[in-house]
Automatic annotation (TrEMBL):
<keyword id="KW-0645">Protease</keyword>
<dbReference type="InterPro" id="IPR043472">
    <property type="entry name" value="Macro_dom-like"/>
</dbReference>
<dbReference type="Pfam" id="PF21337">
    <property type="entry name" value="Peptidase_M17_N_1"/>
</dbReference>
<comment type="similarity">
    <text>Belongs to the peptidase M17 family.</text>
</comment>
<dbReference type="GO" id="GO:0005737">
    <property type="term" value="C:cytoplasm"/>
</dbReference>
<dbReference type="InterPro" id="IPR048816">
    <property type="entry name" value="Peptidase_M17_N_1"/>
</dbReference>
<keyword id="KW-0378">Hydrolase</keyword>
<protein>
    <submittedName>
        <fullName>Leucyl aminopeptidase family protein</fullName>
    </submittedName>
</protein>
<dbReference type="InterPro" id="IPR011356">
    <property type="entry name" value="Leucine_aapep/pepB"/>
</dbReference>
<dbReference type="GO" id="GO:0030145">
    <property type="term" value="F:manganese ion binding"/>
</dbReference>
<dbReference type="GO" id="GO:0006508">
    <property type="term" value="P:proteolysis"/>
</dbReference>
<dbReference type="GO" id="GO:0070006">
    <property type="term" value="F:metalloaminopeptidase activity"/>
</dbReference>
<feature type="domain" description="Cytosol aminopeptidase">
    <location>
        <begin position="308"/>
        <end position="315"/>
    </location>
</feature>
<keyword id="KW-0031">Aminopeptidase</keyword>
<dbReference type="InterPro" id="IPR000819">
    <property type="entry name" value="Peptidase_M17_C"/>
</dbReference>
<dbReference type="Pfam" id="PF00883">
    <property type="entry name" value="Peptidase_M17"/>
</dbReference>
<keyword id="KW-0464">Manganese</keyword>
Amino acid sequence: MSVKFAKEETPSIPVYIVEAGGFDDWSASQPASVTAWLKANGFAAALGEVCLVPDKTGMPEMAVVGYGKPAARARGRFHLAKAAAALPAGTYHIQSGLEGAALEEAALGWLLSGYQFTRYRQQKPNKLRLKVPEGIDAARVEAIAAGEVLTRDLINTPASDMGPQELEDAFLALAAEHGAKTQVVMGDDLLTQNLPMIHAVGRASDRAPRLLDMRWGDAGPTLTLVGKGVCFDTGGLNIKPGSSMGLMKKDMGGAATVMGLAHMIMTLGLKLRLRVLVPAVENAINGSAFRPQDILTSRKRLTVEVNNTDAEGRLVLADALALADEDVPDCLISMATLTGAARVAVGPDLAPYYTDDDSMAAILADSGAAVADPLWRMPFWDPYESMIEPGIADLDNAPAGGFAGSITAALFLRRFVDQTPRYAHFDIYGWQPNAAPARPKGGVGQGARAILESLPKVLDL
């Protein structure tokens, strides 16, 4: 679906966004008829409150939206998107009340509030349009919205229609759209190309595992994005219970998110050299499935004891990270729906991330706050390194005990990155469990907008 602003020449209804504390002053500046109408409707500028003011013919003359108090706004985001849901179909423009980052967030939220996943069911078309607010970069906001839509569509598509081949098709289409170069290593060629753990995880499926590789840009600093592309995760021989398998179509959420981010970067023409790596597999079950206590030898020659075949994401990421690290990019970022432990720690709304670089961590935190894409830094806690060392092999893919599961997974991945100067890992959820402003229930991008915002400082663009 397209997420675009309305054309400038389209007639539109002004939207006035009014804080609770400034409502009296704003109301006093309006015609008496407007003030009387607002008073008659009990409008007090509470957060999300909406009042349509009619003209003499009864048609909407303006929409007044309450922006509440700072304490109320701090408990959520995309508040204008929530208010917009109460407006009738039509085209609107923001007349006053917001500026800067708050205005950009409002515009983006409005665009994303129109998202619909229509592949399997027709829905009523969204007829709520917004003109470009004065003072924002429309092309940037539209690019971000389009990247988010790509991510959502990929995650929302069930594994029956989003296996490794279909993910490859989407990957190649994205590359073709932006003139990027691609390479795909598939099936047994993964062994000859020294990507053995990607092969091991995906070999039991009748849909061949593969590594997707995209390169774009010919000048500037280098950025590599690695996204977990497990198109469905049964848990392998350590099969998941039904209650845990129900959302596993979203286990390629890391891949979907880096692809959405790549779309933003390439659409905006950032002056950098981008590489995107996606190990695309299905963790299935048959006689060739990898087994508990198998020992795998990774691309990096580190050996891994498999103590749970349901901890497969870190295995496919490890080979992809080792490959990425050989290029020594200026910055390397991995994104994955990796652990339930991360959800227990921070819930579904926060994207936890790991990095040893305090400067990069601060930039990411500030960027997430600036663009309403909340992040939370987690520690690469060195004292837990011994937990991922089983003794019989170099590494354990699933330490016993269950403590610090997200941290030990991140530590595992860090073992495969030892040359790149800046590395960050995001353990995202990729799913909106309950509808929220600008985020319907279903697949959702996390961390991409924060990363995009951080790149000028991280890479000195």
